[in-house]
Amino acid sequence: MSKKDNGASVILAYLNEKNRPYSAQDVFCNLQKQHGLGKTAVVKAMELLAQEGKIKEKIYGKQKIYFADQSQFRDVNDADLKAMDKQISELSAEVQTLTQSCKQLDTELKELNCSLTTEEMRAEIQELKAECSGYRARLEKIKSATNHVTPEEKEKVYKERDVYVKEWKKRKRLASDMMNAILEGYPKSKKEFLEEVGVETDEDCKVVFPNT
Predict the structure, then answer these.
(1) What is the pTM of this model?
(2) CA neighbor of 11 nearest in space, from 29, 61, 63
(3) What residue ranges in 19-158 does DSSP mark as E strands?
(4) Which InterPro entries match (predicted)?
(5) Pick from 42, 48, 70, 154: CA 20 to 30 A from residue 3's CA?
(6) Which residues are 60's β-sheet partners?
């Protein structure tokens, strides 16, 4: 782009390609980043192109709108318009299909990124194998032990436990009856009485009767 051209050729090509109305501000915003055109240069170039008849200019109040000279384009009949509409519909459907495919692929990619890599899977498999080996060794040790409790011994232990639990309940009931009898003539509360005589209850020690 020559200095004398001042961006006019770029702007003309752009308007002919897009074939839609633009203000000078629109063209500046669209081309400034790619071609480094200044706003003043864009305004002057578009005014010059309009004066030369290469583009058309319309004024709406204080706003100037520029667009390509339509005489350079061939006339479009109804058949052409229908064909274009059909092509637009087909392309729109294709875009929609591709968009859905992209979303699906994006979802699959996210799932793959969250999955373990091959090396991580191999390392985890080795860890699980080592853990299984440890469990097998413990199981063999338990099976080979000679100090297993027989059903008879287990039954004996449970019966002894039942005896002790019954005795525990009996003694607790007796102690409770005795304490209630004392509290009838005691001027203070039950809590203060227990603290004074130094008695700790099952509840203080958070102990409960086992299930029988």
Answers:
(1) 0.40
(2) 29
(3) 55-60, 63-68
(4) Hop2_WH_dom, LZ3wCH, WH-like_DNA-bd_sf
(5) 70
(6) 63
